[in-house]
Amino acid sequence: MNIQVEVQNVSLQYKNFPALKNISFTLAESKIYGLIGRNGAGKTSLLSLLASFREPTSGKILINGEEPFENPLVMEQVCFIYEKDYKDESEDVSTLLETAERYRSHYDKDYAHKLMQRFKLPMNKPLKSLSRGMQSVFNVVTGLASRCPITILDEAYLGMDAPTREIFYQELLADQENHPRIFILSTHLVSEMDYLFDKVLILDRGSLILQENYEDFISRGSSLTGPAEVVDEFVHSLQKLNEQKLGNTKSVMIYDTLSEGQQRAAQAKGLQIGPVSLQELFIHLTKEEE
Ligand SMILES: Nc1ncnc2c1ncn2[C@@H]1O[C@H](COP(=O)(O)OP(=O)(O)OP(=O)(O)O)[C@@H](O)[C@H]1O
């Protein structure tokens, strides 16, 4: 079943603070969406609206045409994984997994057990006694095994070491291949996780400044390097995001698709054209004036 999320002119106000400003977008395909933004940009606020933890101050969220807030049938389609405080949780891991199964209609118990083994998560220990990284593993396992049509992972990797994060990414991609759904991943580990994203959403100070296919977005960034005066002349009508100079060699990051003709012209002038990463584009597109 194809599920659709529509966010229509959504704003969220905390007292006098506008955390989200008139945001609209549609997620209509079973893809992996990367939600990125600087600290305080509004990522968790947006995700908590999608998960119906709160209501927008204005605007509408529709999941398959229905408002999800206090609507259990719609909410069953959404799974929100975020960092939780388990200090008062006395149950062991296996009991909590059984509880997860009871509340999730798409839950795959065998898959959950397979993941537990792969991550080497101890089944018979109280969850509160596990390390922070292992508690995150538990969250991710319940998130993946729930197989919710909309699965939201808000910085789900917190505390995981690099090899554990790698297993998480591998399992996510493998399960998405076999059971496609809408995954929304919010992250600060942009350069580490960018290869997972089919599409990218960028929040900047409460506004959505970009929603685009990852590949299309990346292809609009390039770096041009060469003698300073040649580079300056070439880029003068292009949108520049950043520049660096070492002696007379200059490198300029541009945010404009270069046509084949422009690429040939740049090469003919002896300029080197290089790729730009999602992280670099993100840093410079959300840079504040100094
Ligand atoms: N309950 C609240 N009451 C008042 N302000 C809040 C509340 N929750 C969040 N905010 C503010 O709203 C803004 C957005 O916060 P949010 O947690 O959504 O950002 P974020 O992009 O998830 O940040 P980070 O990447 O640092 O986790 C921040 O300025 C934050 O201080």
Write the layout of secondary structure elements.
Layout: E1 5-14, E2 17-27, E3 32-37, H1 43-50, E4 58-63, H2 72-75, E5 78-81, H3 93-103, H4 109-119, H5 132-146, E6 150-154, H6 162-178, E7 182-186, H7 190-193, E8 199-204, E9 207-213, H8 214-219, E10 221-227, H9 228-235, E11 240-246, E12 249-255, H10 260-268, E13 272-275, H11 278-285
Parallel strand pairs: 3-7, 3-8, 5-6, 6-7
Antiparallel strand pairs: 1-2, 1-4, 8-9, 10-12, 10-13, 11-12
Domain ABC transporter: 5-230
Keywords: ATP-binding, Nucleotide-binding, Transport
Protein name: ABC transporter domain-containing protein
How would you sum up this structure, described in words?
Keywords: ATP-binding, Nucleotide-binding, Transport. This is ABC transporter domain-containing protein. InterPro entries: AAA+_ATPase, ABC_transporter-like_ATP-bd, ABC_Transporter_VariousFunc, P-loop_NTPase. One of its GO terms (molecular function) is ATP binding. This protein has about 290 residues and is an alpha/beta fold. The chain folds into 2 domains: about 210 residues, P-loop containing nucleotide triphosphate hydrolases (Rossmann fold), CATH 3.40.50.300; about 60 residues, Alpha-Beta Plaits (2-Layer Sandwich). About 35% of the residues lie in helices and about 30% in strands. The chain is built from 11 helices and 13 strands. The strands form 3 sheets. Strands 5-6-7-3-8-9 form a 6-stranded mixed sheet, sandwiched between helices. Strands 11-12-10-13 form a 4-stranded antiparallel sheet, with helices on both faces. Strand 1 and strand 2 form a beta hairpin. Helix 4 runs antiparallel to helix 5. The longest helix has 17 residues. It is globular, with a radius of gyration of 22 Å. The chain starts with a strand and ends in a 5-residue tail after the last helix. The structure holds adenosine-5'-triphosphate. Adenosine-5'-triphosphate binds next to strand 2 and helix 1.
